[in-house]
Write a structure and sequence with these properties.
It is a single chain. The chain has about 425 residues and is α+β, with helices and mostly antiparallel strands. The protein folds into 2 domains: about 240 residues, paralog of FGE (formylglycine-generating enzyme); about 190 residues, no CATH class. Helices cover about 25% and strands about 15% of the residues. The strands form 4 sheets. A 4-stranded antiparallel sheet has the order 1-4-12-7. Strands 10-9-8-11 form a 4-stranded mixed sheet. The chain is globular. About 5% of the residues have low confidence.
Length: about 425
């Protein structure tokens, strides 16, 4: 044995020891600081509840059945993701594309060699270049050479109005990768050890800009052009729920949100955060009920008004009297009272995407399967071939029936609507938390 080999083995042994006396004591100097609650989110305690119809299936949909399920503790956004929050994602994608193009030509200014940043997806980009210290936004480039590089980000001259330079939103594509753990879990232990990890990696390309024309396409005979032009970008709508975002864009936002947070975690030397994601259908219903079992609405029920006669959500009251609740379209988030978990607008305003695939008979063909199939244990179903995703909560354009917490609906994952938004959840890293 050479001296180098001996010292290398000695270093490995010493590094693996936690107790000089030879007892197993775990790896030392681990970061055990308490997990900080994410701002804007509330912690939902672990628990079991009765999912499904609490009273009667008024629409005779027969697409859900009552059963008891259990879910672990998780965080959930207090409100829907707003226009302003989603716009941060869009601007980040815009700026990362611009920096990437500039780094190809001016690597000494726009590229840096930092392996830690590779972990977060910001590969070798100098995010401090051209940053406005006051706003944190990037200053747009006026130098002739740089502007020539970035001209493809803008609409061509013959597509502009009044000579205004406007970003070509078709260029805003977010590229990210995921690991298909479900596919890996289907392999036996021998196959897992011998598998090629690259076979489990999935590459995704998602256009991130919302479909603002949904305000027109969803209502062919309505004059909604002002909403199509202004709803996403005008400051007056900053605290309104983002809509016109399909299921895949919501998924991409959560991947970016996770990596954006982990960038700062890495720089602080802290453990990486739990992933942000869309809630499962069971998590959404559990959170919407707010601990009130067998109640039709988040506030209990059976009425849609409080004692003063005020509506408790933004929906279509009466027979199409949209303005009775004070809002013609969507409303500012947090305008109506929260449920007992502190969550606002769980029904009405904008309906919410879930990660769960929709099937009318899912509860029926899973109920009588083998004992190994635990559909009461944090249930979720999302086969890749099922493109219909569960949408919950009803919206500003729905009648009161769709505000019930037990009513299921769906939309295709590549379809955006003017009445569907989303909110994020994050699994709580510990015990029940209650």
């Amino acid at each position: 044995m050479t001296r180098l080999t001996f010292f290398l083995m000695l270093a490995i042994v010493i590094a693996g020891c936690g107790d000089p006396a030879g007892h197993v004591s775990g790896i030392q100097e681990r970061d055990h600081r308490i997990y900080r609650d994410p701002p804007g989110m509330v912690q939902i305690p672990a628990g079991s509840f009765q999912v499904g119809p609490a009273d009667q299936d008024i629409a005779y949909a027969h697409n859900a059945r009552s059963r008891t399920v259990s879910v672990p503790s998780f965080y959930m956004d207090q409100t829907e993701v707003t226009n302003n929050q989603y716009r941060q994602f869009v601007n980040w994608v815009r700026d990362s594309i611009a920096l990437s193009w500039l780094a190809d030509v001016f690597p000494e200014e726009y590229a840096i060699d930092d392996e830690d940043l590779m972990l977060t997806g910001e590969v070798f980009l100098n995010w401090d270049a051209r940053r406005d210290r006051r706003t944190g936004e990037f200053r747009f480039w006026n130098e002739e050479e740089e502007m020539e590089i970035l001209m493809d980000l803008y609409l061509p001259d013959d597509h502009r109005f009044f000579r205004r330079r406007v970003i070509d939103t078709r260029q805003l594509v977010y590229v990210y990768y995921t690991l298909n753990l479900r596919e890996a879990a289907r392999l036996n232990p021998v196959e897992r050890r011998n598998m090629n990890r690259d076979d489990l990696v999935r590459r995704h390309e998602t256009h991130v800009y919302p479909d603002t024309l949904v305000w027109i396409s969803d209502f062919t005979y309505s004059y909604n052009e002002p909403m199509a032009r202004q709803y996403f970008w005008h400051p007056s709508f900053d605290r309104y729920p983002v809509v016109g975002v399909n299921w895949m864009q919501a998924q991409a936002f959560n991947v970016w949100r996770t990596q954006y947070l982990n960038t700062h975690k890495v720089r602080e030397g802290r453990p990486l955060a739990m992933d942000f994601r869309l809630p499962s259908e069971a998590e959404w219903e559990y959170a919407a009920r707010g601990g009130r079992e067998l109640s039709p609405y988040p506030w209990g029920g059976p009425y849609l008004r409080n004692e003063e006669g005020c509506f408790l959500a933004n929906f279509k009251p009466m027979r199409g009297d949209f303005t009775s609740d004070g809002n013609m379209y969507t409303s500012r988030v947090g305008l109506y009272p929260p449920n007992d978990f502190g969550l606002y607008d769980m029904v009405g305003n904008a309906a919410a995407w879930t990660v769960t695939a929709f099937d009318e008979s899912i509860d029926y063909f899973t109920h009588d399967m083998s004992p190994d199939f635990q559909y009461d244990f944090n249930p979720d179903t999302d086969p890749p071939h099922m493109s219909r995703k569960v949408v919950r909560g009803g919206s500003w354009k729905d009648i009161g029936h769709f505000l019930r917490v037990d009513v299921r609906d769906y939309e295709y994952q590549d379809t955006a609507r003017s009445y569907i938004g989303f909110r994020s959840v994050q699994t709580y890293p510990g015990r029940s938390g209650n």
